[in-house]
Amino acid sequence: MSSDRLLAPLLIVEDDLALQKQLKWSLDRYESVVADDVASAVLQFRRYSPSVVTMDLGLPPDRDSVSEGFRCLEKLLEIDPAVKVIVLTGQNDQENALRAIRIGAYDFLAKPVEPEVLSLTVERAYRLYELQQENRRLQAAQQTEALSGLVTRDSGMLRICRTLEKVASSDATVLLLGESGTGKELLAQGLHETSKRKGRFVAINCAAIPENLLESELFGYEKGAFTGASKTTVGKIETANGGTLMLDEIGDLPMALQAKLLRFLQERSIERVGGRQEIPIDVRVVGATHQNLRNLISEGKFREDLYYRLAEIVLEIPPLRERCGDAVLLANVFLKKYSADRRRAAMSFSEEAVRAIELHQWPGNVRELQNVVKRASIMADGDRVTMQDIDLPVEMPDLESGDGFPSLKAVREAAEREAVVNALARSNGNIGKAALMLGVSRPTLYDLMTKLNIT
Known about the structure:
Layout: H1 3-6, E1 9-13, H2 17-26, E2 31-35, H3 38-48, E3 52-56, H4 68-79, E4 84-89, H5 94-103, E5 107-110, H6 115-143, H7 155-167, E6 174-177, H8 184-195, E7 201-205, H9 211-219, H10 236-239, E8 244-248, H11 255-267, E9 269-270, E10 279-280, E11 284-289, H12 293-298, H13 304-310, E12 313-316, H14 326-341, E13 348-349, H15 351-359, H16 365-379, E14 384-385, H17 387-390, H18 408-426, H19 431-438, H20 442-451
Parallel strand pairs: 1-2, 1-3, 3-4, 4-5, 6-11, 6-12, 7-8, 8-11, 13-14
Antiparallel strand pairs: 9-10
């Protein structure tokens, strides 16, 4: 038995002093505490929070002739429904023992109890309690959004979410880098909602607005500033005052506007187009792009000083193909949503469809996945989405050696990688469960993941 288990608290509820000593001796590997009635049992239980309790079901009855054993059992289960209570009964008291099981006791043993049997039963109760607690923690982690609106189990994405949670309380400028469709705007929204800033979240795509209109969209304009400016109009920066401004595809911002944006970031104030009044602005800026800004700087297309103003916190968002288990997880989330939107019965993917989702490289990332699932939910005839419905090619890696023939090493690694990714996805990232599915030990699975570069 491990050393941490030796110190585990155990509550013994027994009114007979001789039996108290005998039970403590039999269970001397635990930190045993004793109680002889309901009140002391509840007190000791609240004080030590034991995972396992042994209880004499035949405690003296109260004035209403109700066994205190049942009363004690109910009170302890009320405090912690997960506690494992092992009741000890007389040889001919099976009816009350079964009643205790129905109430919620873990097991019962008839007196006199063999020390080895008692020790083994207590040990099993501790193990079960620990397994159930771990399972609850895993389920809670899976059901909780990593960041407001974002669903993921990937360790890399979870680290990004934790970083954004830490940044949320500050006014630091954040730069999100990554391919199109990876969820940069969703992360920016999550950062805004976590920050509790009272203003709005405003996003503008710098690549989607013509250059001659982008300045007025960002900074606003005064009445008469140009032909057609019939009234004063507030820009996106001013609209986001007190909140968060996301500048998507900031790598496409024209050089002239880059200088004006840099001044705004330094001074924290703006002038509308055609205006002369300085307007103070309190806003967090989140930049996002799929481009390599350092390359743009070397090519003279992006200001280095603006980059450093934007890059107080820089986060690289991994593409969907590198996020272990997220493709199937998100596909199920989207399918549930579209089933509900169309008022259809709960839909699910066939095994072949799941495999295709796992193996597809998703060049369009989450946006592509969402579109594929939406189309599939429409095309499916029943409540089962098939390979034909999702219409995805199953992409196999290039296994050819130098002479055009597949090498055994490449074939073996491809098969191993597919099996490991499959097991991790189906076990929701649970290493122990995945190792069990693959028929290997946890250390062996960790070695495989390292060799195959699986995070």
